[in-house]
Amino acid sequence: MASEVVLSSMIAEHVALVTLNRPEVMNAVNPDVSLALERAVRATEENAEVWVVILTGAGDKGFCTGVDLGYMARHGGKGIRTRAGGFAGFVNQSRSKPWIAAVNGYALAGGLEIVLACDLVVAAEHAKFGLPEVKRGLVAGAGGLYRLPRALPRALAFEAIVTGSPFAAQQAFAHGMVNRLVAREKLIEEALALAATICQNAPVAVRESLAVARQAYDLSDVELKDASGMASLRNSLTEDYKEGPRAFVEKRSPRWQGR
Questions:
Q1: Which one, out of 35, 41, 113, 198, has a CA that is 20 to 30 A from the CA of 85?
Q2: 176-200 burial, b if ≥16 CB within 10 A, otherwise e?
Q3: What is the pLDDT of residue 60?
Q4: What is this structure's pTM?
């Protein structure tokens, strides 16, 4: 039996690719997916050579359509969440590195919640997003109810939540939820290009900056000022902090060490 989640540790220099691998059910989440995705997060966090991670789904129909409803009908929600990661072992998982969702089709329910838990989104033009939980008597309890209103204008997010209707990738792109919109055959290529641009920068500085930015909706300005100060202090203790100005003066590309 094929692995439910495939981790290719280096699809490009400093870039890992993680693939949800249940295309026959549009990569719906069962306990095996949750455990495997949690392990993939842990593996990329522990690998110092990984600076950016791309997350996608197998096939070209679905990125992920949320929980496997067939499994849920038989077993309830048992095993769908992990202690550390929450739904799919991912949406609440602590991650220091940038994650790019490469959305290759439907991202519905928990699938959209996985996308919203990533930092950047590249979507194929045929992709669709939605939180259809209310159509099944459910609540989108894995972050969608508060992350979607942060990603879309209030009225559009509220409509998607209470109607359960899907919306197109073009609309998501127009309102800033999606960073890049591309033809399906260019999806991974564009995600890799975005990852490569990130990898031109000092990895510790990227991680420290991202850690503060992720808290922008949750902390006060005073708290964010303190968090930014601490991030700057930690970054100033790295070799890369010295390398950046040195490379600029010497008119060469910096050689980042990630420490």
A1: 198
A2: ebbbbbbeeeebbebbbebbeebbe
A3: 84
A4: 0.94
Task: Read off the DSSP letter of residue 214.
Answer: T
User: Residue type at 100?
Assistant: I
Q: Which tens digits make up the pLDDT trace of 177-234?
A: 999 999 999 999 999 999 999 999 999 999 999 999 999 999 999 999 999 999 999 9
**For residue 7, what pLDDT band results from cuts at 50, 70 and 90?**
low
Please give the C-alpha separations between residue 103 and each of 78, 163, 220, 221, 255, in angstroms, as whole numbers: 27, 22, 32, 33, 32
Q: Can you say whether the dihedral through the CA atoms of 212, 218, 220, 226 is positive or negative?
A: negative
Contact yes or no for 68/106 (Cβ under 8 A): no
| Residues designated as active site | 113, 133
Which DSSP string do the residues of 129-164 spell out, in sequence order?
A: EE-GGGGGT---TTTHHHHHHHHS-HHHHHHHHHH-
Distance CA 161, CA 108 (A): 11
Instruction: Note whether 120 and 100 are within 8 A (CB).
Output: yes
CA pair distance 115, 206, nearest whole angstrom: 20
CA distances in angstroms from 251 to 117, 186, 202, 257, 259, listed in the order given: 38, 34, 17, 18, 22
C-alpha closest to that of 114 among 88, 81, 150 = 88
Q: Which fold has domain 5-199?
A: 2-enoyl-CoA Hydratase; Chain A, domain 1 (3.90.226)
Report yes or no: 24 and 55 within 8 Å, Cβ to Cβ.
Answer: no
Rounded (5°) CA angle 14-15-17: 150
248: its two tokens: 């600029």
Tell me how long the chain is: 259
